[in-house]
Specification:
CATH class: Alpha Beta
Structural class: alpha/beta
Number of helices: 3
Strand order of the largest sheet: 5-2-6-7-8
CATH superfamily: ABC-type transport auxiliary lipoprotein component
Largest sheet: 5 strands, mixed
Number of strands: 8
Distance between the termini: 85 Å
Order of helices and strands: HEEEEHEEEEH
Oligomer: single chain
CATH architecture: 3-Layer(aba) Sandwich
Shape: elongated
Length: about 190
Amino acid sequence: MNALPVLMVSALLLSACMHHDSKPIEFYRLTADVGLKPPPPTPIPEGMIGLGPIHIPDYLNRPQMMVGLSEHQFKLAEHHRWAERLDQNIALALFKALPAQLGSDHLVRYPWPQQQAVDYQISIDIVEFHVGANGQSRLIAQWAIKHKGQTVIDKRSEYQAAASTSDYNSMVAAQSQCLSQLGQEIAAALRHSP
């Protein structure tokens, strides 16, 4: 008869201990305006620019941040998560940073309304985007610019920035730096597009 209250108290104590020891989850967002210099006064082409689609690999398509332990091994950082879907965060960060680089706010995000005419379209395939065991953030992206449906640029770019393997703020700052460099390269390419 007395065993039930003892079991209930034990369960409550165990639950309280587990709750007390659990770390809070921290959330992060990327930016794409780290260390950007003012763009040169080269005018950009006239017309509406469409940003997207942006694709990320499945290994990144999760809330937790991904950290490389070796070339073939990764760990999920359970207590360090993206504040929104990573592909949406990348799109929003570039969408916020590109107008200043282009000197134009004629920019729409994918998917845009069917009736919206887009003169230039930027599509991005993220191939790799994480901090490795060497403490380097690495971004590899295949990106293209189309003008009126015709591809005018198709390029693979790679960026690296020093990070930490234990400080997640440092990791996100380094990844933001890589993303900023990608945005700057895309903006420069657009300014020289036909």
